[in-house]
């Protein structure tokens, strides 16, 4: 079996100029980054303001398991399939973070015959967006410590600086650090930490901004910490939002690439799906909607986290109106949800499947709760038995839900034609708009409880003492009238990663409530949220290599 | 008076494709990064192996002073002037570090009407080379801490890890840090620090490599620290040099831009001129030599540091044979060397000038010591008096040294025509090759003393106890047969920044001797060497801004 990088390197890419032409983009609309990548001018969007939008389709999933569901692969495969059916389609994906590439992951740009290319570039530096975000993040951090060192006119409390430094690397040693050691010339020692770049609020801001000036304003509004009186200190107080915007002048432009089948793909922005909202940028999605009849996008993790934030945060802010939702599931993963062991997944096991399908059932109900029509994509594995497939088909038919088998990893767009047809039908049937599940202006706790009850299926919410205080503070400072960005384990509908399937009767424990004031949402942390991953015992980096002819190994 | 960014933004740039064509480069030879930047394929060099090289001209300077000498501006202006004289000329410059742009500096790409453009890109992310170096540097750092965390099979002594993390930011708080805090999941706490990216050995390696495979081998040879037995541990022991090379696959390719007068400029690599050798990359210079009749390059700081390392390290490693050397001086700076105060520089002061000109005299002798012909470029200021200019002219005439007045800041290439003519003559007169001043295989102390006596004019060298021990260790491990990279203050010929002019009778104190085994040189530290700058009281970042039309302010 060929590896992803082998398949990717054998593909015949079209010059990105030709991909642009196929979307009606001129030379002036694109800035080339090599032959196969380009940035799309923001003018493309503003010049097409009056044009009707294409149809927006979200791809989401059941709660992820170690078996892997293939959400990105289905997203790419569905786009390729629609293209084969003669529908002008644009795929709108998140940019992968470089850090995890060196850890376990190897790469993240779809897989098999449903990949975006050039995958080695997309997985590494790409067009430099991540680096720009890292730089803007760390310029603000340097400005904070410099301000304190130079006299601290703002009275910043160095014990309450919430802005962390960032690096696009899996580096556990940087999670908790002390900076400013070495004596007076080096400033004041204080506790600090690094996040991986995709967890930075700058990334969330990039993804929610509607223009460079909006981006600058949002960066100015970032709360960097608190002063000695306890009042919030903003980025704009340090006067560096202009320099930060300058650093982001190119990063804000969406990136155009293609799939293995030459379907256009816009890859832009990739915020963490826990501490942030886990969706690609509003600007990229809007641009794609002006260029294609169909736009296929995805959101991080399962529908309880990804789809909820996509709909309640991204679409709300961006005025986006999705027409249908694909929920990706695999038989292997559903059996894990039903209690099967990972080692036994290759055997037919209707019992575990029947127990685990409730996870899919709940995600379907969740999507319906937003007044949207879900289509289930059952991503087929060689080990799936006919009985198991028949069981799921029957289960879904009983609920009036369409299902399509997909084989996009092995067959590319050809393996997603049935799904594509069903998605077209679902989108055609959609009338009116989807509905958010809570009002931004509702009290903070009410918004949190709505998500927990309606989406997670929990009984209620318990607040840690610290969280109670933080909620009071946010209300006092008038920083509470924003959507909620839940930071919860992706593995369970609850806040306990061990409760698979469709848990009931649980309470969600909120440990911390923070404002991402620039991004414009309140982050609500449940459980331990990791914002800086580590490397495993044998990092993927150890097998990566490049030879003198440019052949690459170890990206997969 | 217009600011540099104003002048730069008013210039009519040619599409970089046209600049490439003027050098005989095809579409396939270039990878575009937007419309005005491109990476040059390494094949361009290998395909032209048999072709005769152009003439290499080095631009260096007297010891720098707060008055500023304009070395980069003269370099760009000279290139433009040669071009005006019908000589096909390529300028080969270092890439500016982004960090200092936000501090005092504002920008570093020449000035006035002798700039390289697009200056806002060159000064910020450019084509991402700095970010690639930062990533490769920090991947190695993460691999080290991960190795220790995962069981430390190599027995790395965490008290003796010499590899530091890097960031392209002026951030004093990161000079001395403790990482790995927070308990067992975060690894072992240890002292660490960040360098600014240009001070990373990866940058020096990039600049001294002759191919991607050479780069990979050199990265593998990096000494990252010592094990518990006291033996060196190498990057290759951690098996990440392949992944690091993958990260550098594009960064190794030289970048093509242009000057305000559309003269081609290759800007690639910018190692710190103290901890490293301060020259642009060998690959860029070699490529330029295959494309132009004349190649103008520069080296960091004054001739005692920059030219010496250019000749003894870069040209030695790269087999480069410079044909002439320009020494940039200003009357204002020479008066400072003669004891004048900065506030008085606008008044004629023959006395201070006569006292300070000895600095120029010594730098001339130094260049002659390498068997090269210096031409003095007197970079003219409005405040220079005729008497002062006449004095210098006479002084140099007495030594048989050519001098040219330059007004390249105000007039572009037009202001450098006289210099260009004299450089052409000097290069034509050059017979045979220059000579290095020491043999790589000589004992370490002998090499250091040769530099101190011949170039700095000192009496001898004193070694700190630590340095003695380090020299013994390097000899023991067989790591000593390499050129010396002196890390010394740039302000004086001695190691005391206060001794201006041409100090005599001094001893140089060597505090530390380190091997940059990947780069292939021994760093010899005298005095305090800063590898991470800080931001000033009012950082340049505070005045930088960009508006909705893309107009930029604050880069100068």
TrEMBL record, chains A, B:
Pathway: One-carbon metabolism; tetrahydrofolate interconversion. It holds the Pfam family FTHFS. The keyword Nucleotide-binding applies. InterPro entries: Formate_THF_ligase (IPR000559), Formate_THF_ligase_CS (IPR020628), P-loop_NTPase (IPR027417). Its EC number is 6.3.4.3. It comes from the Bacteria. It catalyses: (6S)-5,6,7,8-tetrahydrofolate + formate + ATP = (6R)-10-formyltetrahydrofolate + ADP + phosphate. Gene3D superfamilies: Domain 2, N(10)-formyltetrahydrofolate synthetase (3.30.1510.10), Formyltetrahydrofolate synthetase, domain 3 (3.10.410.10), P-loop containing nucleotide triphosphate hydrolases (3.40.50.300). Keywords: ATP-binding, Ligase, Nucleotide-binding, One-carbon metabolism. GO terms for molecular function: ATP binding; formate-tetrahydrofolate ligase activity. It is an enzyme of class 6 (ligase). GO terms for biological process: tetrahydrofolate interconversion. ATP binds at residues 65-72. Belongs to the formate--tetrahydrofolate ligase family. This is Formate--tetrahydrofolate ligase. The gene is fhs.
